[in-house]
Specification:
Blueprint (H helix, E strand, L loop, with lengths): L11 H11 L7 H8 L4 H15 L3 H8 L2 H11 L2 H13 L6 H10 L2 H15 L3 H7 L3 H12 L10 H16 L6 H9 L2 H15 L3 H8 L6 H12 L4 H12 L3 H8 L2 H10 L5
Length: 284
């Protein structure tokens, strides 16, 4: 369930005019930018961009980039992009770091629907004139390359059906290969990159029941974490605010005994803090 509060009636021309006014003069009115963009969904933001360009013959994204700075600018930039284009930008930034951020690639490839991931791959190719697969392969190596290329290339079944017998047998395969630390085993890559989310969940649950530990914990520990907390925080809130951030907030509270908006308010500041809290559905 989404967390952003979107009004029923929106005037894209009025929004474009308000954003133009916020960017004029001696200083930028960040509160107006937050109040407008923080309460518009992806389709509405796209219409605002189109209206702004038609009115002022100027790219709204470039204008905002020139007016804003720091974590706030990065958050607004990622938010205003179309979702598929945003994921393409996130993926490109992740793999071109001196130490590629594998977590971002895994997150995008495993949490998007098959159609959404296909749209990301198309957006990536349109923006960078390379395929996502070839750039992932070019900037990674060894075992992780095999897994990541398989993940970003996948088009999984997206249904609800589960094969219990298959889950049992593949849980055993994963146990045997993980026990031997054979994370590059062809069967591991095949299972993780081709099975549906529901089928994988059944397999992981069986693994947990049999082995007494979560396979996701095992896999998470096998990949070195890279990247700043601000990057991860912005990415999760911006990419999930229109989807399932309410569920993420509830799970965060359950696991950490503190609300996510409280943690964000404590660890961030200024316009960046106000923008993230708006996307979380709680004004500063």
């Amino acid at each position: 369930m989404a967390t952003i509060d979107v009004p029923n009636q929106v005037s894209f021309l009025e929004d474009a005019e308000a954003l133009r006014k916020a960017c004029q003069g001696w200083g930028t009115d960040e509160k107006v930018i937050i109040s407008v963009l923080g309460h518009r969904n992806a389709a509405q933001r796209k219409q605002i961009r189109l209206a702004y360009e038609e009115l002022y013959q100027e790219d709204l994204i470039k204008r905002l980039e020139s007016e804003l700075s720091g974590d706030f600018e990065r958050a607004v930039f990622r938010w205003i992009l179309d979702p598929a284009d945003r994921d393409a930008v996130l993926a490109n930034a992740a793999i071109r770091k001196p130490n590629p951020d594998h977590h971002v690639i895994i997150e995008i490839s495993c949490t998007r629907s098959p159609e959404e991931l296909l749209a990301v791959r198309r957006a990536y190719q349109a923006r960078y004139k390379h395929s996502l697969e070839e750039d992932v392969a070019a900037h990674t190596k060894g075992d992780i390359r095999k897994l990541l290329v398989a993940l970003v290339s996948a088009f999984r079944y997206d249904g609800e059906e589960i094969n219990t017998r298959l889950a049992n047998s593949e849980a055993k395969i994963l146990h045997d290969t993980i026990k031997d630390k054979a994370f590059n085993h062809e069967e591991v890559i095949r299972i993780l990159s081709t099975r549906s989310k529901m089928q994988l969940m059944a397999t992981f649950n069986r693994y947990r029941d049999d082995q007494g530990t979560s396979i996701t914990k095992v896999l998470r520990n096998s990949v070195k974490k890279i990247g700043t907390d601000e990057d991860a925080l912005t990415r999760v809130i911006v990419t999930r605010a229109e989807k399932d951030l309410k569920e993420i907030k509830d799970l965060y509270h359950k696991r950490n005994s503190v609300r996510l908006d409280q943690a964000v308010a404590r660890d961030t500041s200024g316009d960046y803090k106000a923008f993230l809290l708006t996307l979380l559905g709680k004004e500063d």
